[in-house]
Request: fold
Amino acid sequence: MRSHKDLDVWKEAMQLVKGVYRLSATLPREETYGLVAQMRRAAVSVPSNIAEGAARDSSKEFIQFLYVSLGSLSELETQLILAKEIFSCDTSSLESTIERLRKMLIGLIKSLRKRGEGGEDFDQPSCS
Reply:
C-alpha cells in the first residue's frame, strides 16, 4: 500500500510550502498577521489536503480533497500576486511551481475519475 508521501504531487506541494515560508519571511514585519499568515496557511493546505484525501476510503473522496488543494493553490497564487505588486517580491519561481502543481493535480483528478468509471476504487492511488 502506497502512502501520500510516495506521491510526486505531494512532494512538489511540500517544496512549495518551503518556498512560501522563505519568501514570506522577507515581507515586512507588520504583515506577520496579515498576508504572511494567509500565504502560509494556503500553502500548507495544499499538501495537507492531498494527504488527507489519499487516506480516504474512495477515489471520489480523494478527488474532493484534491479540489480543495486546487482552491488553496489559487488562493496562494492571488496572495503571491499581491506580494509581487505591493512589495516588489520576486515570485516567479513560486508561480512556476504553482502552475506545475495545478497541472499535476488536474492530471491526478482525471486519472482517478477514469479509474472510477471502471467501477474500481483505490485506497492509495499513485501519481507521477
Q: What stands out?
A: Confidence is low (pLDDT under 50) at residues 119-128. The domain at 4-114 is CATH 1.20.1440.60 (de novo design (two linked rop proteins)). The two ends are 16 Å apart (CA to CA). The chain has one domain: 4-114.
